[in-house]
């Protein structure tokens, strides 16, 4: 079933354009409106929601962190994101006007399931974002938005993550549409870009050879660090998680603005640091900030691996390695910026002789605590 690929992970990385397109299919109409009939929570109730709380584990949690930026920006509803394993054992403030979103590829993750039960006990509505039809989490939720990634066999999540992001964007845009918040030309343009995004993911996949080469050259390293700002920060966390679980290396993701508060002490001669650079258009302040972060770490000897939008020339003087991604609106950038990090981790792990589909000590579905 690997269809000629060396691993399920490589196959699943390659399937991402289709997974993304399938998850969008039938959910955006010709006029650019969202039709999420599966979200059976009545529009009147969605208009009353005063807080969104996202619970998830691992990679799905990273999708949730990215969703927060989109939900708050497009809907102005406050949004919290919490690890399900933390949420379930505390006393969160919820009521029937809170919408809890549980994100899970398998639909069977014990902590996420317990977190949603905890939320329902307090009268909150629960919406599941899930990849597995009829699994426990959607069965116990008030509504479910399925991701259409198809079966994900490799233990490390790749295509499911991208489709979780798509589902989160759809929910955020739908909430905006239903509530009328900020719904206007900006959002309409985002919907148009989202509808076309699978082409951009495909484009990234076509340019990964230099990333593979770079990954192989780093197989002897002990540490790789990842930096990002805004939605690039969860992307950095995801890049680090992929590298830990597949390559068994020390990998950490940081918010670039935190560098001076500690992590910069880790920078020494030739340590590889991957930096996710936001688009220079739009939030240009964010872009300028990260360019100075790159300068700072390079001055301290870091080997900079910069992921930046095509045409962004400002980063060129400071990048030891430059990975180009297509121009996308900032909030959607994780859909293209994550792909090189998946390829990087997979190739580096293979170069270290690891089995990428079945990393040691890990299970695909974590049904115990
Ligand atoms: C990482 C990975 C895990 C899962 C986590 C949640 O590559 O796959 O971190 O994301 O165990 O699993 P689901 O989404 O099935 O709840």
From TrEMBL:
Q: Which domain of life is it from?
A: Bacteria
Write down the EC number: 2.6.1.16
Listed under GO cellular component are:
cytosol
Supply one GO BP term.
carbohydrate metabolic process
Catalysed reactions, semicolon-separated: D-fructose 6-phosphate + L-glutamine = D-glucosamine 6-phosphate + L-glutamate
Do the record's keywords include Transmembrane?
Answer: no
> Where in the numbering of this chain does the SIS domain appear?
42-181, 214-359
The subcellular localization recorded is:
Cytoplasm
GO terms (molecular function) for this protein are:
carbohydrate derivative binding; glutamine-fructose-6-phosphate transaminase (isomerizing) activity
Q: Which UniProt keywords apply?
A: Aminotransferase, Cytoplasm, Glutamine amidotransferase, Repeat, Transferase
Indicate yes or no for the key word Amino-acid biosynthesis.
no
Residues forming the catalytic site? 364
Subunit and interaction comment: Homodimer.
Free-text function comment from the UniProt entry: Catalyzes the first step in hexosamine metabolism, converting fructose-6P into glucosamine-6P using glutamine as a nitrogen source.
What's the protein name? Glutamine--fructose-6-phosphate aminotransferase [isomerizing]
What is the covered span of the full protein? 247 to 615 of 615
